[in-house]
Design a protein that fits this description.
The complex is a heterodimer of chains A (106) and B (160). Chain A has 106 residues and is of the alpha/beta class. Chain A is built from three helices and five strands; from the N terminus they run ββαβαβαβ. Chain A has a single domain, classed as STAS domain (Transcription Regulator spoIIAA). The longest helix of chain A has 18 residues. Chain B has 160 residues and is of the alpha+beta class. The mean pLDDT of chain B is 91. In chain B, strand 4 and strand 5 form a beta hairpin. Chain B is elongated, with a radius of gyration of 18 Å. In chain B, 41% of the residues lie in helices and 26% in strands. In chain B, helix 1 packs antiparallel against helix 2 and helix 2 runs antiparallel to helix 4. The chains are: A alpha/beta (106), B alpha+beta (160).
Chain lengths: 106, 160
Amino acid sequence: MESKFYEEDKLLVFRITEEIDDFSVQKIRRRADYEIERYMPKKVVFDFDRVTFMDSAGIGLIIGRYKFAKMLGGTVELANLTNSIKKIFEMSGILRLIPVTNLEII
Amino acid sequence: MKSEIENEMKLEFISKSANEAFARITVAAFASQLDPTIEELADIKTAVSEAVTNCIIHGYDKKQGIVKIFARLKENEIMIEISDKGKGIENIDIAKEPLYTTKPNLERSGMGFTIMESFMDTVDVESVVGLGTKVTMRKIIKNKMENDEADDEFEMITKE
């Protein structure tokens, strides 16, 4: 996972580069929480452009970061979802809470 | 002539979550003999990943055990059995409900069975408390049928 913080916009972007499953989320979660706490962003964007696989572990990952960022006064958005990833998020209902963007941010 | 595919494979590995990727990639490589579309292959990988995660997180619950996968290809269908000898499920109907999880503190979403059911054609769960759980999933690979039809058509044309 790569990350970049845009100071002027208080925007923190995580570009996930690994397959997302129960094994990989443990590392992603620790790193994301560490950086959210460090930068206190207004907005956190998870970019899925390079994610080739995701199972339901991704749902828990995003709900958890949504709650954490919200607690610290920020919001979460998802970017560049592939069809199969979108299908999984849609099933969970979290897209009613978390907006999806397709912006070229990085 | 339709090409008759019949094939079987077995896989056993230790219940470590690092093996989830190994399991789904292996089953997907085996399934690719049926010539699935990329989307069908993604569906199979996701369903396998969910079932294997269940064995590791719930079946064995951090204890070490063996996860077994048996897969069979017959004509245009793949059947996948994923089993553990873990603690079993007390109430399968409740476990299958969307958003139901016994481990919310681990950020489990409770969507595993829902995803398996929507990505595969059928999902059957057998479980005995204290003895283990077996999930049997089936999926018809549509692409194979279409390709075979195209092959038959090609053979008819070339025979004329």
